[in-house]
Write a structure and sequence with these properties.
Length: 374
């Protein structure tokens, strides 16, 4: 049997990681400015994380959600405290798409509606309703194109107020900062207008913080720059530093009903141990504050490059837009300068490093990039 060919692959076999660095099977070291799609939050192979996961899997890796799991209780309490959402409820699942599916499902149970507002360049996942809410027709199969979703321009307050005024919208789903869409940042005015309009029309506001959350923006959630509180927040990626896990933070306005939501693997003991270790390290090493500090430095330095059309983002979620396609530049960064980066569309380089990135490592990236942009 062969693997189903879904991704074009770089001819690099990564076999080891430590902090913000990875190594291939030939022993070549790379600076990791992508963190495996923003998944590596506390750095590769952090010793506390390794110990916690190893100890848990040697004790109990998994058991059913039909019994008490004290690790889930502890995770909910600690996540509520560190994020500022103590009064919310937590539902644990396995992936970002799954988080968005369950948030949209719960929203529809709540108000009985079926229409969803999403935004231009949005990405919310590759399954069922999550992919329908993703503004990319190339990945929406005919079976997913069910007419539930209206796409609006990001930051267009009048357009969103007009749609919500119709009174038939179940939910608005929006990323704290658009990732796949090219590091597009919603304005404070837009987010506050959105919150008010949702309240006035009994529409559920869902913040997809799967890529922009968990400290990446320099605040725990990117939407916290705008001073709003959504009805639900979806998280994944950095929550367990590479172990498959996700969650939905759910406002007290929602009352749980047995049978509406469920999961086999979600919140299992091994996943919870990984997620708790992530919170341990984030707190001990002040990683949210580090993301803000090092990210501000990176953004400031990158804005000095005349070759870069625009630098966007917050913290360690940064987009570099060029006037020309970046495919060759990304290849040169990887194969000549030994730096992993991401892309968005044709003209944007995406930086999503582990939140432990140091000033020295940030400056090393600037140095390597400058060699290619001279």
């Amino acid at each position: 049997m062969k693997l189903f060919d879904v991704y074009p692959l770089f001819d690099v076999n990564i076999v080891k990681g430590k902090g913000c660095h990875v190594w291939d099977d030939k022993g070549q070291e790379y600076l990791d400015l992508y963190g495996g799609h923003a998944v590596i939050s506390i750095g590769h192979a952090h010793p506390h994380y390794v110990e916690a996961v190893s100890k848990q899997v040697a004790t109990l890796g998994f058991y059913s959600n039909s019994v008490i799991n004290q690790l889930q209780v502890e995770l909910a309490q600690r996540l509520g405290k560190i994020s500022g959402y103590d009064d919310y409820q937590l539902f644990l699942i396995n992936s970002g798409a799954e988080a968005n599916e369950n948030a949209l499902k719960l929203a529809s149970f709540y108000n009985g509606r079926t229409r969803v507002i999403s935004f231009a360049k949005a990405f919310h996942g590759r399954t069922s309703l999550a992919v329908e809410a993703t503004n990319n027709p190339k990945i929406i199969a005919p079976i997913n194109a069910n007419g539930h979703v209206t796409y609006l321009p990001l930051n267009d307050t009048e357009a969103v107020k007009a749609e919500l005024a119709k009174g038939d919208v179940c939910a608005v789903i929006i990323e704290g900062i658009q990732g796949v869409g090219g590091i597009q940042v919603p304005t404070t005015e837009f987010m506050q207008t959105l919150r008010t309009a949702c309240d006035e029309t009994n529409t559920v506001l869902i913040l997809d913080e799967i890529q922009s959350g968990y400290g990446r923006s320099g605040k725990f959630f990117a939407h916290q720059y705008t001073g709003i509180r959504p009805d639900m927040i979806t998280v994944a990626k950095g929550i367990a530093n590479g172990f498959p896990m996700a969650g939905v933070l759910i406002s007290p306005k929602f009352t749980p009903v047995y049978g509406q939501l469920g999961t086999t693997f979600g919140g299992n003991q091994l996943a919870c141990a990984a997620a708790l270790a992530v919170l341990d390290v984030m707190e001990a090493d002040n990683l949210v504050e580090n993301a803000a500090k090092v990210g501000s430095h990176l953004i400031e330095e990158l804005k000095k490059f005349s070759h870069i059309k625009e630098v966007r983002g917050e913290g360690l979620m940064i987009g570099l837009e060029f006037n020309e396609p970046v495919k060759e530049l990304r290849q040169q960064l990887l194969f000549d300068q030994k730096v992993f980066t991401g892309v968005s569309g044709t003209n944007v380089i995406r930086l999503l490093p582990p939140l432990c990135l140091s000033m020295e490592e940030a400056d090393e990236f600037i140095s390597r990039l400058s060699k290619l942009l001279k």
